[in-house]
Amino acid sequence: GLGALLNLTAITLNLHGCKIGNAGLASLAQGLGALRSLTAVNLHLSKCDKIGNIGLISLVQGLGALLNLTAITLNLHGCKIGNAGLASLAQGLGALRSLTAVNLHLSKCDKIGNIGLISLVQGLGAL
């Protein structure tokens, strides 16, 4: 598994359009969380329409273990995340004090509204 790559500092995974859902994303998050030397994570999950708030919350929990993370790109275009998932993401990323670059692609996430966007701004404002 991913845990065998303990010295990895950067990872890019392009899962565009895959049928990965919340459970798959939770497993991926657990594996990523074990890679404590990661400084950069690029996840392309666009059009993975089985990913929702629960999956995003699991991802945030896994990423929370990456205390050396300086850059993250998350492409969530077309995922089924909403305000609760975005709020969790914002809170989790805001807690990663080493972050210096955040790129989020949230187009076509039609369950995100004003509340989610406000949560995002507040959470990232902590950085």
> Strand order across the biggest sheet?
1-2-3-4
Mean pLDDT across every amino acid position: 93
- Quote the distance from N terminus to C terminus: 31 Å
SS content category: alpha/beta
How would you sum up the major sheet? 4 strands, parallel
- Share of β-strand residues: 15-25%
Spatial extent as radius of gyration = 13 Å
- The ordered H/E elements are EHEHEHEH
Unreliable spans: none
Q: Give the strand tally.
A: 4
Supply the number of helical segments. 4
In which range does the helix fraction lie?
25-40%
Tell me the overall shape. Answer: globular
How would you describe this structure to a colleague?
There is one protein chain. Strands 1-2-3-4 form a four-stranded parallel beta sheet, with no helix packed on it. It has helices at residues 22-33, 53-63, 83-94, 114-124, and strands at residues 10-14, 40-44, 71-75, 101-105. It has four helices and four strands. The protein is globular, with a radius of gyration of 13 Å. The longest helix is centred in the first third of the chain and has 12 residues, at 22-33. The protein is an alpha/beta fold and 127 residues long. The model has no long low-confidence stretch (mean pLDDT 93).
Topology diagram in text:
Blueprint: E1 10-14, H1 22-33, E2 40-44, H2 53-63, E3 71-75, H3 83-94, E4 101-105, H4 114-124
Parallel strand pairs: 1-2, 2-3, 3-4
